[in-house]
Amino acid sequence: MAFVITSPCIPEKAADCVDVCPVDCIVEGDDQYFIDPDLCISCGACEAACPVGAVFEEYDVPLGESHYIEKAIRFFQNA
Ligand code: SF4
Ligand code: SF4
């Protein structure tokens, strides 16, 4: 189970989460940052650090934001 970055990241992109991730699994994309679901150890540090509440545990992603789970998977498949 990994954490997922959702839509509030898109205008913000300040990368506070990148600085706190202990396994360096948060990567910058064109419009937002992405968490690599294969590397995330679900420590929750990024969720606490994000100033706009964009980060959720995968099972806790709000309705209407669930496509961000697939978007992250696609991002790392194409990387
Ligand atoms: S801290 Fe939040 S808004 Fe900023 S880059 Fe990370 S997920 Fe996006
Ligand atoms: S939950 Fe922890 S390991 Fe996963 S992306 Fe966030 S800071 Fe990194």
UniProtKB/TrEMBL annotation:
<keyword id="KW-0408">Iron</keyword>
<keyword id="KW-0249">Electron transport</keyword>
<keyword id="KW-0813">Transport</keyword>
<feature type="domain" description="4Fe-4S ferredoxin-type">
    <location>
        <begin position="31"/>
        <end position="60"/>
    </location>
</feature>
<comment type="function">
    <text>Ferredoxins are iron-sulfur proteins that transfer electrons in a wide variety of metabolic reactions.</text>
</comment>
<dbReference type="InterPro" id="IPR050294">
    <property type="entry name" value="RnfB_subfamily"/>
</dbReference>
<dbReference type="GO" id="GO:0051539">
    <property type="term" value="F:4 iron, 4 sulfur cluster binding"/>
</dbReference>
<dbReference type="GO" id="GO:0046872">
    <property type="term" value="F:metal ion binding"/>
</dbReference>
<dbReference type="GO" id="GO:0009055">
    <property type="term" value="F:electron transfer activity"/>
</dbReference>
<dbReference type="InterPro" id="IPR000813">
    <property type="entry name" value="7Fe_ferredoxin"/>
</dbReference>
<dbReference type="Pfam" id="PF00037">
    <property type="entry name" value="Fer4"/>
</dbReference>
<keyword id="KW-0479">Metal-binding</keyword>
<protein>
    <recommendedName>
        <fullName>Ferredoxin</fullName>
    </recommendedName>
</protein>
<dbReference type="InterPro" id="IPR017896">
    <property type="entry name" value="4Fe4S_Fe-S-bd"/>
</dbReference>
<dbReference type="InterPro" id="IPR017900">
    <property type="entry name" value="4Fe4S_Fe_S_CS"/>
</dbReference>
<keyword id="KW-0411">Iron-sulfur</keyword>
<keyword id="KW-0004">4Fe-4S</keyword>
